[in-house]
Specification:
Elements: H1 4-14, E1 20-22, H2 30-37, H3 55-71, E2 77-83, E3 89-97, E4 104-110, H4 119-134, E5 139-144, H5 149-157, E6 161-166, E7 174-180, H6 181-186
Antiparallel strand pairs: 1-2, 2-3, 3-4, 5-7, 6-7
């Protein structure tokens, strides 16, 4: 197995962000992750999958995430985000296949204490750069709960095109967005 420090450096180098660092998940991050995934307010748009009930459930979910990340081709997955200056966990960014699909989604989840600082946009933009430049993807999608206005705004700031609603993923109706490589290369979604 790779040295964990090498994996951390590899993920961070692929997801360059001015204020944040992306790392690989480890089980010792369960307490920090539970502050996010156990928070009923932060996870209100993620029901019925979240919030998690306790730290034991978080550890089990992290095991599943780590195993799932290992199965993805092309270094996709989800990664915890930390502030560069304080090393505090901010949230999570993801770039992975939508359930039972070959379509790749970008997404983000943030701890409430870090809402409103532009971290979701920063992380989402980095994931798009990684997806288009490193993984050579042609199209990247996002799915957002219709009531999640802040995440819809992030998709708009990333210049993702709204396709309407879909019920194809996560057992609910969601707003459906996309951006393709050409549009990403020709617009200001690449800029901070």
């Amino acid at each position: 197995m790779d040295d964990p420090d090498d994996t951390i450096n590899e993920i961070s180098s692929h997801l360059p962000m001015p204020r944040l660092v992306a790392r690989s998940w480890t089980l010792d991050l369960a307490t920090a992750a539970f502050k996010l995934y156990g928070d009923p307010i932060a996870m209100r748009f993620m029901r019925p999958f979240y919030p998690l009930a306790d730290l034991a459930a978080m550890r089990e979910r992290l095991r599943e995430i780590i195993e799932r990340n290992d199965t993805y081709v092309g270094r996709m997955g989800s990664w915890p985000l930390f502030k560069r200056d304080t090393d505090a966990m901010v949230g999570v960014v993801l770039l992975k296949p939508l359930p039972e699909s070959e379509k790749i989604e970008v997404g983000w989840h943030l701890l409430r204490t870090h809402w409103g600082h532009g971290y979701a946009t920063e992380a989402g933009r980095a994931a798009l750069v990684y997806g288009f430049e490193q993984l050579r993807l042609e199209t990247i999608y996002a799915v957002v709960n219709p009531g999640n206005t802040p995440s819809i705004r992030v998709c708009q700031r990333l210049n993702m095109r709204h396709l309407g609603r879909t019920s194809d993923y996560y057992e609910r109706e969601l707003e459906f967005f996309l951006i393709d490589r050409k549009a990403f290369g020709n617009d200001d979604s690449r800029e901070g």
